[in-house]
Amino acid sequence: MPLLSEPDAISGIRTFRTRTYVELEEGGTVLLGHDAEGHYRARSSAELVASGPRLEQVAGSLLWRQVVVAVDADSSDSVLTITLHSSSDDDASTTSKRQRTTPPPQNEATEQAPALFRPDWAFTPTLALPQFITVNDVHYKVMSRMDARQFPILYIQPPTHPAYDFDVLEAILRHTPEEQPRAAIRVPPDDHWEIDTRLPFEKPLTAHVRDIFPEVTTVTLENIARKQFELANSSPYADAAGLTALRQIFHSWKHATPSPHPQWSDPLLMLSILPTTSGITNTSRTIELPAPSSTGALNRLDFDPMRFRRQWEFFLNTYSTVDFKRFMADLLRRNGYTVMEPNSFNSFPALVFRRTGHDYLFFMSLHRTRIPKLSMPTQNNPNTTGMSLETQVGDAAAQVVKDAHEANRIIWLRGGSQILPGAADTVFIIRDDNARL
């Protein structure tokens, strides 16, 4: 079992994944949370908002204790139940948790799971408040936008939450995942509302991307997740259709099934198209490469060589075109693509590949560069030098490329290594959409 972190030197708070814990002066470790007013309380791992006893840090100590308050008999603070956790408890553990009740400290009680949605998520509707639905006579705020698309699945949210842009939702999924919006659907025959008890997202959006593209850089990871979020929602802010689309995409990734939204499921389809400009001569061309550290826009994919150090070190010590093609083909395969076997021709290296989940075909020309642009002189253009497609990629791949081009289902890419002074080495892919036919 993984252990909790060491206590913070000031607060005494310990962490495990996104959860926070404190040690009590009377002994034991308790899961810590905030109530609706922002006070520290003990909480159950299933709660949205902490409802256990108020807690405070013991002055001059890293230990915590229960706040002594005068309460009414009907007050929630009169239920003084604290769930104690072993320091080796895992989130998914099914072992029983020892509890203490006060008073008396020796009294043992069986933990009862709290209601899935506490009254903190409910509100009294007024003309000034947004849309709501009613479930079991409780009103819940519905996540929406002014231009929200019509969609049969709705999502409820805590009434204090603002609109969800990428950064807000990512932070919630990372730190307080139990506070994420929950799906609600109408159930026939009377079309009453029911709330889905499952969490829509089991991890942050970037973590879903990392599972499928394990070798991209941290900057690329966030750029993919952000672009995917904004495309699925047709906006910087989430709506019901967008959240459901993201859930469908992640499901198709996990189970390697066709995606209902291929244009948002593959980052190579989401890449911005970079312009090609005239080079030094009238017939040469160049493509300016955005900085590898550029954030907020998905205009290149970068793969971190430190995640495939052995293959990268071999690549740096060979200038064989065949080795170059094999290196790039292996990288693509490790990140979920199916690559047609490269041929052994040494000029104009290129690869042809696909990805499960959509029927687009990718053609990628390969380059090595030590400057922030790709230069493509006339003598390096296979079309102007009479180099056939069959010679570049082989007969079988050439026919697949021609068929995909005729069906308008081909994406033209460029990729390879970029080694710049003062910057981390990277393996990149960009999209230029310049047909190689």
Characterize the largest beta sheet: strand count, sense, and whether it forms a barrel: 6 strands, antiparallel
Tell me the number of structural domains. Answer: 4
Please state the CA-atom Rg, rounded to the nearest Å.
28 Å
Terminal residue distance: 57 Å
The overall strand count is 22
Enumerate how many helices there are, as a single number. 10
Helicity range = 10-25%
Bulk shape:
elongated
Beta content comes to 15-25%
Structural class call reads alpha+beta
pLDDT under 50 segments (min length 5)?
70-116
What is the mean predicted local confidence, pLDDT?
81
Characterize the structure shown.
This protein folds into four domains: 14-101, no CATH class; 119-195, no CATH class; 207-265, no CATH class; 269-431, no CATH class. 22% of the residues lie in helices and 23% in strands. It contains ten helices and 22 strands. The chain has helices at 166-175, 205-212, 218-233, 240-255, 262-265, 267-270, 309-316, 321-334, 389-393, 395-406, and strands at 14-16, 19-23, 29-34, 40-42, 55-57, 64-66, 81-85, 98-101, 132-135, 138-142, 154-157, 182-187, 192-195, 277-278, 285-288, 301-303, 337-339, 350-355, 361-369, 373-376, 410-418, 426-431. The strands form five sheets. Strands 1, 2, 3, 4, 7 and 8 form a six-stranded antiparallel β-sheet that branches. Helix 2 (205-212) crosses helix 3. The model is unreliable at 70-116 (pLDDT under 50).
